[in-house]
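1st attempt posting a full record on here, be nice pls
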Amino acid sequence: MPLLLVEDDRELAHGLSSSLAQSGYATDVAPDGHAAIAACQDTTYDLVILDLGLPDLDGLEVLRRLRKAGMLAPVLILTARFDLDDRVSGLDAGGDDYLAKPFALPELEARIRALLRRGLPVESSVTFGDIAFEPATRQASVHGRELALTAAEATVLGLLLRRPGRVVSKSQFADAIYDHADEKNPAMIEVFISRLRRKLAEAQSQVVIRALRGLGYRLEGGAYA
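the predicted structure (as tokens):
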């Protein structure tokens, strides 16, 4: 469940993303408006947490651009501005909820859960090369033929497909697969990747899962060697 946190305060961004990871959310961080827009072009996020006080663009302008580009994910606005006019402006720009700074982490997580429960329009499918993936059912196919995947393998493939050409770290996979911090075992990710590679090869997929030492994995087009 990928989230995007748009926050220029590095210390706050690191603290929030670390805390959200403990709650099972894989969180990318964008330090400014242009980085947020670029991130949303590359990845389909389930929710965006947007600080209005950004160094390059006003947060509301970022929000307007994201909505104009077709982003459907709910947006939780973080702001020190909290009078009525500001709330109305944020909602008019495409925001879904407001949270005033300073705030308590449990309240932030409660707002996130509430927004995610509202749901989003279901994507018909996600495709990359010859792979098609149905997010609602987590079913995958290659050349139109269904792949038999375990729940963990489907989660791994889903994360890779949401970030085509971008690296997904072992910790991000572990955050998505395991419900509790004490269950997380990043070493098992190599097992899931290996099984997924084998199944894609058996299905004669032209897509590869490339390992980048010390960073993670990403999908690339091309034939298996």
